[in-house]
Amino acid sequence: MNERVEKLSAMAAQLRRDVVNAVYYAKDGHPGPCMSAADLVAVLYFDLLRLRPEDPAWNERDRFILSKGHACPLWYAALARRGYFPPVELKTLRSLGSRLQGHPDLKKTPGVDANSGSLGHGLSQACGLALAARKRGSDSLNVVITGDGELNEGIVWEAAMAIAKLKLTNLIAIVDNNGMQSGGKVEQVSGLYPLREKWEAFGWYVVELDGHDIGQLLPVLERAFIRGRATREQRQGMSLLPEHLELELETTAGTPHPDQPVVVIARTLKGKGVPYMEGDNSWHKRVPTDEEHQIALSILGGQDLE
Amino acid sequence: MQGLEALAEQDERIMLVCADSLKAMRADPFLEKFPDRVVELGIAEQNAAGVSAGLALGGLIPYFATYAGFITMRACEQIRTFIAYPKLDVKLVGINGGLAAGEREGVSHQFFEDLAILRSIPNLTILVPADAGQARQAAIAAAEIPGPVYIRLGSGRDPVIFDDKQPFVPGKIHLLEQRGNDLVFFCNGLMIPRVLVASAMLAAKGIACTVAEVHTLKPLDTEGVTELLIDCGAAVTAEDHNIIGGLGSAIMECAAEHCPVPVSRIGLRDVFPGSGHPEALLDFYGMSVNDMVDAAITTINRKPNPYPNEE
Fold first, then answer.
1. Mind listing the domains of chain A with CATH numbers?
2. What number is the ipTM of this complex?
3. Which one of A83, A235, B14, B132 has the fewest beta carbons within 10 angstroms of its own beta carbon?
């Protein structure tokens, strides 16, 4: 496990570097919201998701949707490092003719399974994908990362209601709870909190954890993946906290009901990993200067885009 | 719904997505026959459109069916960005389209903007069948059309206009009557029987018209429309929709670009209507047979004099 955690930490730093580079070369984009989700995306794309980058249309792949589509430089970085296209292509972000659109476009970017960008739509699409997987008897999973700001949208709760009603245990929702939205702190802009209780009231089982501690993220999400592919009988009484790790996390009481969908609320920090971006919401959408670019690269390490 | 049942029997991928609209769609027989092919999502149209996108991404062909306005207005953005933009195989079925179908329910259930809204979204095909038989054929045809299709339906109590032997060919105008070339009527949906009466009344006055059904509003059969405009030199459009953005606009755009002849529009004249009996509503809001006759005569009189220099 430790080796996996180390490898994923290094990859998360690489993805952060790629985001800084992509936004720097594009002279446009949203770096802050990418940084808070980088550890989550690293764990998913470089350990848990079942994918065939050489065959993006492979039907038995897991589907991933980045519902907070403005963080797509992070998604593109993960796809590039996973082999869907060359990392150097990240330099074309947002430019005319590029496959890497300002917000995700499934027709243009290999590996992108759903459009996003207009907020709040990941769960609805994942709901349809999960129904389709169930209908064809596939154990492929459907994983969504949503922002916390986008949980302001009513459609999210329409989807949450439907997913619980339809007992879609082959869908895993992850909230990148960085506490900030475009206009400021989530609690100041909207009435989102208390968040765990909202999900529970909609019929979901909630696990709250530190979204930057891969030592927590990996074992819990791994459990969620195993549960997502398990039979109903196997899900009976299955905990999301591996016993041997003695993780003390806040969760819904007891173990999930075998028909209950699971949401992981990952507490994160906007801008995480680049000190001058951390907690500074001006980096929601901002381009690093030459100097800021160099500082970020020296802190993050890793490889450049070539 | 009979069309959808026939389709579902042949194609495993066909799904019905509802927003507490099973009853309104009279889809109980479908539910009985194919219980695992119905996705009921409750009164939540935005989510239903998003789920339909997901089903299509998962290789299925969902028909999302509910009231026309709740699909096209409440879920407009979901249709645009998540269905039309990625050109997914989602078929949208809107009932209560138009003033007559909404009738006594009042404005909240009278949808006279749906076609204008959807016509401005790329990648969408828009079908406006006129009666139950055409609706059945349109539902079947939609499965063959790649990408998203919107099928606009009435109340389900609409009179039978066509016998089932008449083929429904999407993309082409459908010539209903060719008495002569004084003027051409372009019409669809519930307006067809009224236009046919108007055409007969005009014939009695010695004015010989052509009547064409435009059941495929988008893509418009520009060639077919232009040919008739050239032949007749004047046109009246008739639709149960706001005169802005629907059939009238589509024909005027075509005329302005390809054959600028006088065109008049019959439809709801950009006002909010009231409740009432469907026939009374159409009469009161400018869609009566007499309105059509008057519009035809006025429009013919606007044809340019071919010999302007002679007194």
1. 2-300 (3.40.50.970)
2. 0.95
3. A83
